[in-house]
Amino acid sequence: MAKSSPPHFGPVPGIAPGHEFANRLELWGAGVHRQTQAGISAWQGEGAESIVLSGGYEDDEDLGTVIIY
């Protein structure tokens, strides 16, 4: 996924909700998350396109339909 491609908001075709990826490079390759290091992929003035929890911060919480980042 190129950074210059337009932002995508909403479901990603072919990716089921809750699908787990091995790493951020796999997310990037699937077109799900543009960043290979940052946890938030966002566009200025548009909002967050995707948010990834890595388990690296003890206060991050994944509650299914709600995350605390």
Kindly summarize this structure in a few lines:
By secondary structure, the protein is mainly beta. The chain contains 1 helix and 4 strands.
What distance lies between the first and last C-alpha atoms, to the nearest angstrom? Answer: 24 Å
**Count of extended strands:** 4
Rough outline: globular
Strand content: 15-25%
Low-confidence stretches: none
Oligomeric grouping of the chains: single chain
Q: Kindly name the structural category.
A: mainly beta
Please estimate the helix content: under 10%
Largest sheet, order of strands side by side? 1-2
Average of per-residue pLDDT values: 82
Major pleated sheet = 2 strands, antiparallel
The DSSP helix count reads 1
Q: Order of SSEs, N→C? A: HEEEE
Rg over CA atoms? 12 Å
